[in-house]
């Protein structure tokens, strides 16, 4: 039994050590090592290989605990009404001031602070616009129960209705994107300048030129985002990811919960 325990501890130590490296391949090997450690822990301690398989696969089933206990009960408003919103204080979002200075340093103008609240879920947007590039930018803070994170996004709206967005949203998105929304997703922590340069490269790769982009009035950006949110809810209702309940709010359908699980798996593989 002691040799088995030492082998399991050795595999766990090696896996965690590989996970500590910045190189993607090392992180992937560390993720595989954690699955192997789980398998051998179940197999060697029980003597039954099926138990080992179950222990390894449990990592893929673990998201269902969150899905069935929290996400299944989550409701969203049919209309996400954005309103002007007071920015969070410096203790709850200490980097907002630095991010604002960084974005304005690239020639963007601060337009408005907006957001929406629903039960225990809230979003805050600080919106910017750069007229010469016909490009909008946003700092978004998402706060849900005990989970809070922020991300940066840069968007250019084409005259044909397509929206070209570059962002560092940290998770696989929990709703299906509308067909006209094209996303360039960046991994890890990025400075605004890095995201901005990647966005310009993204537009260039897709042969999107300045003349293809719609010029916006800064005051209309909040309304445009409101339309985007409305279109996304409608698209997910039509695709069956969301459903209306008797109270007029929307919830995830069982098809939607399966979609969420697949998105969890994508993150599990990506972060492994």
Summarize it:
By secondary structure, the protein is an alpha+beta fold.
Structural overview:
The chain is an alpha+beta fold. The protein has 2 domains: 2-61, no CATH class; 78-252, no CATH class. Helix content is 44%, strand content 22%. It is built from 8 helices and 10 strands. It has helices at 2-19, 24-46, 49-61, 63-69, 96-104, 192-205, 221-239, 254-271; strands at 75-76, 83-84, 109-118, 121-130, 135-144, 147-157, 163-167, 181-185, 242-244, 250-252. It has a 7-stranded mixed beta sheet with strand order 2-3-4-5-6-7-8, with helices on one face. It has a 3-stranded antiparallel beta sheet with strand order 1-10-9. A hairpin with a 2-residue loop joins strand 3 and strand 4 (121-130). Helix 1 runs antiparallel to helix 2, helix 2 (24-46) packs across helix 3 and helix 4 (63-69) runs antiparallel to helix 8. The longest helix is centred in the first third of the chain and has 23 residues, at 24-46. The radius of gyration is 22 Å and the shape is globular. The mean pLDDT is 84.
Give short descriptive properties of this protein:
7-stranded mixed sheet, 10 strands, 3-stranded antiparallel sheet, alpha+beta, 272 residues, 22% strand
Quaternary class: single chain
Question: What is the count of helical runs?
Answer: 8
| Helical fraction | 40-55%
Any idea what the shape is?
globular
Q: What layout of secondary structure does this protein have?
A:
Blueprint: H1 2-19, H2 24-46, H3 49-61, H4 63-69, E1 75-76, E2 83-84, H5 96-104, E3 109-118, E4 121-130, E5 135-144, E6 147-157, E7 163-167, E8 181-185, H6 192-205, H7 221-239, E9 242-244, E10 250-252, H8 254-271
Parallel strand pairs: 7-8
Antiparallel strand pairs: 1-10, 2-3, 3-4, 4-5, 5-6, 6-7, 9-10
């Amino acid at each position: 039994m002691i040799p088995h325990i030492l082998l399991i501890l050795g595999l766990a130590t090696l896996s965690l050590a590989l996970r500590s490296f910045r190189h993607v391949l090392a992180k992937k090997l560390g993720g595989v090592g954690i699955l192997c450690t789980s398998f051998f822990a179940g197999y060697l301690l029980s003597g039954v290989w099926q138990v080992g398989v179950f222990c390894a696969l449990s990592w893929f089933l673990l998201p269902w605990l969150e899905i069935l206990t929290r996400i299944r009960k989550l409701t969203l408003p049919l209309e996400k009404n954005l309103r002007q919103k007071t920015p969070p204080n410096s203790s709850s979002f200490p980097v907002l001031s630095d991010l604002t200075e960084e974005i304005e340093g690239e020639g963007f103008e601060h337009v408005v602070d907006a957001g929406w609240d629903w039960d225990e879920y809230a979003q805050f947007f600080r919106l910017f616009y750069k007229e010469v590039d016909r490009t909008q930018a946003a700092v978004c803070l998402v706060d849900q129960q005990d989970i809070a994170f922020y991300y940066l996004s840069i968007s250019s709206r084409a005259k044909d209705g397509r929206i070209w967005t570059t962002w560092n949203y940290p998770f696989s998105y929990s709703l299906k994107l509308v067909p006209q929304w094209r996303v360039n997703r960046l991994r890890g922590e990025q400075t605004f300048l890095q995201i901005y340069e990647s966005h310009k490269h993204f537009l260039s790769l897709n042969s999107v030129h300045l003349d293809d982009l719609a010029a916006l009035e800064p005051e209309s950006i909040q309304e445009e985002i409101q339309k985007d949110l409305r279109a996304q809810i409608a698209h997910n209702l039509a695709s069956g990811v969301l459903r209306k309940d008797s109270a007029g709010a929307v919830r995830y359908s069982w098809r939607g919960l399966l979609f969420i699980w697949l998105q969890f798996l994508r993150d599990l593989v990506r972060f492994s």
